[in-house]
Amino acid sequence: MTKRKGLLVVISGFSGAGKGTLVKKLLSEHENYRLSVSATTRAPRPGEVDGKDYFFVSKSRFEEMIIKQELIEYASYVGNYYGTPKAFVKEALAAGSDVLLEIEIQGALKVRERFPEAILIFVAPPDAETLRSRLLGRGTETPEQVTARLRRAAEESQWMPDYDYLLINDDLEHAAEELHFMIDSQHSRMSQNRRFAERIRDDLNKHFLKEDL
After folding, report:
1. What would the DSSP string read from start to end of 104-131?
2. Residue 124 pairs with which residues in a beta bridge?
3. Which of 42, 78, 84, 106 is disulfide-compatible with 72, CB 3.0–4.6 A?
4. Which residues contact 50 (CB under 8 A, 6 or more apart)?
5. 13 is an annotated ligand-binding site residue
6. What positions does the domain Guanylate kinase-like occupy (predicted)?
């Protein structure tokens, strides 16, 4: 049986859209997903664990990673760096796992440049007021920071058409099921199965494409 190739799945969305919660739900319910832990220079939020939620590094260490080309992509967002370490992603894909990258829009578009086969999914709330309520409800940022994130969301909305799929996160259970279906269905694309198609074509031609049949 042909080994299933791993998929690189980029999940982005406005801050407060719930993409992190959706990713955690997928990881808890499906064994084949692996989360690519991003590196960031921002401070940890309550409950976040270094090496699990993010690799929390200094600005100087992050800039060293850039120079040494240890990142697939990186971007600056609201005053902090975010980036995707290269080694883990390549190893997980080679092992057949579907690798989830929960990253910002700038980084997502850079991944698309380097990995054209990557699947880009944009997570959005049902409406703007819901997004504002979710950001305020987190209670982790000042009103000024919330306003900055909403302004940033307004800017980011222009990039939504560059993604392959749009996922509206209104109901968590339904959104998680839809997200899994979006990803799992990609394994049936011909681009993911070209080697199998070529092999069975060659076998059929070799054994059955004869003039006397």
Report:
1. -HHHHHHHHHH-TT-EEEEEE-SSHHHH
2. 168
3. 84
4. 44, 56
5. yes
6. 6-184
Predicted TM-score (pTM) of the model is 0.79
Q: How far apart are CA 72 and CA 80, in angstroms?
A: 17
Question: Could you give the CA distance from residue 150 to residue 157 in angstroms, rounded to a whole number?
Answer: 11
Say whether 6 counts as a known binding-site residue: no
Q: Is 16 annotated as a binding residue?
A: yes
Does 39 show up as a binding residue in the annotation? Answer: no
Q: For residue 40, give Cα distances in angstroms to 11, 65, 189.
A: 17, 11, 34
* Cβ neighbours for 189, distance < 8 A, ≥ 6 positions apart: none
User: Hey, which residues does 165 pair with through a beta bridge?
Assistant: 121
For the chain, how many residues are written? 213
The 10s digit of each residue's pLDDT in 58-117 is 999 999 999 999 999 888 888 899 988 988 888 889 899 999 999 888 888 889 888 888
